[in-house]
Amino acid sequence: MMTLYETIGYECVALSAATGEGVEALEGKLKDRITLFSGNSGVGKSTLLNRLIPGVHLRTAEISDAHNTGTHTTTFSEMLRLPAGGWVIDTPGIKGFGTFNMEPEEICHYFREIFRFSADCRFGNCTHTHEPGCAVLKAVEDHYIAQSRYNSYLNMLEDKDEGKYRAPY
């Protein structure tokens, strides 16, 4: 997973909130910055913050034996001072991601590797799904874009039911 994201330009840090392995490397990257921790419910954001900030005692829960997943425990966002300098914001977990108020042609902008290759498409209004001369489809075929990321892009293109995210006024 780290290789996938490093390949497209994201910096990754391997660490364990449970053992503390790799936490020092993260501390150096957080020092004197304001950082927001965001991610799926139960992945260990608060557990990691308990490791980074001794004595903060954020509420955490064990991994579910039934589902082998973490449990949603954080219910509000909180900004916390880091001992070495800087701040971190702990946020409630994300249970889903919606594409409301997003035009289909904008979605590729949220995938940096797809956006980069899209500049070389034959047509300016390419949807990167079927068009001849699509540089994105070629990049997926040639493994320059991970199939999993392309599948996420396609899923977002197909996600048109805004009502499931919020009720209309």
Key words describing this protein structure:
169 residues, alpha+beta, three-stranded mixed β-sheet, 7% strand, elongated
Q: What does this molecule look like?
A:
The longest helix is centred in the last third of the chain and has 12 residues. By secondary structure, the protein is an alpha+beta fold. The chain is elongated. It has a 3-stranded mixed β-sheet with strand order 1-3-2, covered by helices on one side. Strand 2 and strand 3 form a beta hairpin. It has 6 helices and 3 strands. Helix content is 28%, strand content 7%.
User: What amount of the residues lies in strands?
Assistant: 5-15%
Mean pLDDT: 84
Termini Cα gap: 40 Å
Order of helices and strands: HHEHEEHHH
Largest sheet: 3 strands, mixed
Radius of gyration: 19 Å
Q: Care to count the β-strands?
A: 3
Query: How many helical elements?
Result: 6
Shape: elongated
Numbering strands along the chain, what is their spatial order in the largest sheet? 1-3-2
Spans of 5+ residues with little confidence (pLDDT < 50)? none
Can you give the helix content as a percent range?
25-40%
Alpha-beta content class: alpha+beta
